Amino acid sequence: MKQCWNQLTDEAGKFDSKSSYLFPAQPRPTFHPWARIVAAVALLLVVGGVLLYMQPHQHNAARATCYVPYGEFRKLTLYDGTEVMLNSGSRLSYPLEDGEGARIVSLEGEAVFKVVHNAKHPFNVKAGHITIRDVGTCFNVRAYPHQDLITTVAEGRVELQSARLGRRLSLGPDEQAVFGSEGVFRAVRRKKSSKVLSWQEGCLVFEEDRLSDILATLERRFNVRFVVEESIDESEVFTMQFNSTETIDDVLRVLASMGKFRYVKHNGKIFLNERE
Asked: Helix, strand, or coil here: 144?
């Protein structure tokens, strides 16, 4: 840049020396030294800003996302030693390295977290409109789209926050908090956490669950698709339990015997029709 400036200055000097007879002599403007310094600094700021804009944002590059397809489970160990078991149809966004402040993960679906506690860097799970904060614990979060958001504590304590709740909600072992899909608080209840977490061993446990939620769970677990006749009441609730060796047909036979419908498999889909 300095070389270009000197060259332009030399060229201008040549022009003045050869062509002064054509024009009356004009006084040259005076440039103060600080003016050149200001111009140079401004140029550096512009170039630096362009280079900074072109570089990737490091906080984006330092995160990863794990998606678990239907019919599968997946276990992750985060950089801090925290263990996460993800259920079928779940997605987790998580940091790949240590950072300042809180450890934050984002969940859509269901997962069990066994958190390595660190008071200086709290562990937070963002799920829908809710934030679950670890206070040294093992807990399950269920946050599938269009379903209630349910947090169950197995060990230790967690704190839940929601803009609509207006306060922090604390949960201990075998306690469960239920929020609507829009973050509206519904209830805190006692719940045996061992049953809630049993999906990790392949078990299916339904306790007063709506038919619509049961079918959604079966779709994820067995990677199937249900088509439900309009006359069937999907708000009907059922309580039943299955171990890891039982198949989709085992589940459907029990479900159909308890409900007022029958099931038919056709072209890769399962049709639920009202029993005649």
From this structure: coil
User: Residue 198 corresponds to which tokens in the numbers above?
Assistant: 């049993």
Provide the β-strand partners of residue 76.
84
Tokens of 1: 């840049």
H-run or E-run covering 29 = none
According to DSSP, the residues that pair with 64 across neighbouring strands are 94
pLDDT at residue 98, rounded to an integer: 76
* Contact criterion met (CB below 8 Å) for 63 and 96: yes
Residue 257: burial class (beta carbons within 10 Å; 0-12, 13-18, 19+): exposed
Measured N-to-C along each axis, helices 248-258 and 211-222 cross at an angle, to the nearest 10 degrees, of 170
Give the model confidence (pLDDT) of 180-208 as tens digits: 988 889 999 999 999 999 999 999 999 99
Cα–Cα distance, 160 to 168 (Å, whole number): 6
- As a whole number of angstroms, the distance between CA 183 and CA 178 comes to 9
What is the C-alpha separation between 205 and 110, in angstroms, rounded? 14
**pTM exceeds 0.70:** yes
**Cα–Cα distance between 152 and 142 in angstroms, integer?**
9
Question: What Cα–Cα distance (Å) separates residue 256 from each residue in 16, 42, 229?
Answer: 101, 75, 14
CA–CA dist 237, 239 (Å, integer): 7
Distances (CA, A) of 45 to 56, 86, 94: 19, 46, 34
Token look-up 């908090």 returns: 177
